[in-house]
Structure prediction request, 441 residues.
Amino acid sequence: MNKLEKALEEAELIARLAAVQLIAQEIVSVLTSSHKINIVVRGNKSIFMSRFEYSLFKPTFYMIRIVIMLLLFLLQKTKAQLTNSSFTINGKITTDSGRVKLLPVSDISFYKDTKIFSESALVAGGRFRVSGTIQYPQAFRLRLENSEGVKYISGIFFVEKGTNTIRFNSDSNWVVPFGEYKTMNEFRNSFLKYFSEVAVKDSIIKAVADSFSRVYGDKVPLKYKSYLTILQEQNKQFERGLFQSYVDHNPKSYVALWNLINYQSFEYSPDLDSIYNSFASELKNTYSAKAFAKRLLISGKTAPGNFFPESLFFNTDYERRNLKILLVNKKITLVDFWFNSCNPCISQFSLLRQFYSEYQNKGFNIIGISVDRAKDSLKWKQVISKEKLPWTQLIDLNSAAQRLGINAYPTNFLLDSSGKIVVRDISLLELEVYLRENLKE
Prediction:
């Protein structure tokens, strides 16, 4: 058995032990809480029998008939529900051919029925048709591909029960398509207009940053970089304030829920918990909202001010490594989650190498953690070698990133010497400012 196989076996054993502990707790809970056995449920009531009564219980012919009739009733009810929950997308797109496929907003964990993401539809004469079932309005993106690869990805759009006619412009990536029905009307005419000032401020900040770059090149003075980070953070706070206000006035808005899910996939703030709690109960009882609540709970554990959770990682020799030990004698540590084919992850390595070279002797450390699967571990090592990454590299073979609520890459955590999270998802610009201000001579 080689080191990789041993590491995988160890990670799997730990996961199994955790599962067995949960099952054991459930069994103990059942055995100690009651001497009755829950046999069947009728409506909201349960029938309980003692173990002795249960041993004397024998099904009769009439009971079997009742069970069969009940099953037939449930089957008919299910069919009726499926019929009432069906949707169709009649799509029009500015291309004659290709294949289209629905993509999730954030990730598929917010969708109860994920089969729709494995299906595709043929484009013929600029038209296509997609059908499925949903219980309430849901958000998607659309991907167009042909023999040359992916040609187009749309902005967010909404699908509701019934027929949804939507027009897509395949020449405009990430742009919201056009549809005239309830949720799309709210999205375009209410939600996007409500948040239009955020986009305007983003454009102004980008224009200011571009002007600094034209004047100073890659040597923009620290005071100007600090100014940009302040502007960016102010706009983020402004956007979260708009979310709170919009949900306060529209507590049943699925448009707001799905846009909040999309927002959280890029960053977490405690403000999101307050916004979520402002939604109506009927909306919070949906599968997507419950999944989002779980995601917020997980993300809250890795919010600034908390200690980075204990997790199992392995080094390039597939030996276990304790993250806390790697923080010893370091004032600031950047924990960077990435994977071998993530272009945004790899593109940041050049600047990170500069920061590491300049500040490693002043107490700065970087720990790279790959989320590559075991079968891709060789590719992971090849990227490390090609990019000449001098800092510690670990691999997550135990799905720790998933449990930490990480669903976009790169994701990073800036830790102090005790392992407490200072910032989550700090930008390279913000990191440079932070290092200069906190690791002075």
